Model the fold of this input.
Amino acid sequence: MRACLGLVFGLFLLSFGCCRLQIPVLLRLLWGILRHAVEAAEDNTAQAWKDLQAYEINNSDTLIGIAASGTTPYVIGGIHKAREAGVLTACITCNPNSPLAQAAEYPIEAVVGPEFVTGSTRMKAGTAQKLILNMLSTTLMIKMGRVKGNKMVNMQLTNKKLVERGIRMIVEELHIPEDEARALLLKHGSVKKVLSLRA
Done:
């Protein structure tokens, strides 16, 4: 479940046109976890760091551990080793004062209380963690200048709907006719580039 949340987080960053080199590393790691899930693996405190080593994690990265209970050995072990290596660490958990929260430099605790179905943390805990990841990723993209006002100006123009949205953004920002906005967007391939040329 938490690997799925991480995967969605990475895909969301890609939709902003972000980190074309780094995010695919995150996605490959999480996809590997999803495709070859081994239930006992979460009990291995050394495995997370081993998994991350394959992707050359270093002190310019940030590691966010996601565990509803805050007690998953795989996640806690990864956070401990990351801190030892000088990697900035945070976590998202749903139990107060958990071992994971104590291990991370920046713990985020969303205390949602017991699940309606005991142990089914995809309900309240998973939903709360997803909302927090949405806030983190949106804030990050705003801080990186990939949003102007409330518009995703760096979005990937991967289909007709997104191209049309980009055209509307340019029309609204520059107050120019739609055909001119379309020509500029098709020429430069990015809403942000078009807006910066006309600034």
User: Anything to note?
Assistant: The longest helix spans residues 124-143. The first strand starts at residue 62 and ends at 66. The two ends are 44 Å apart (CA to CA).
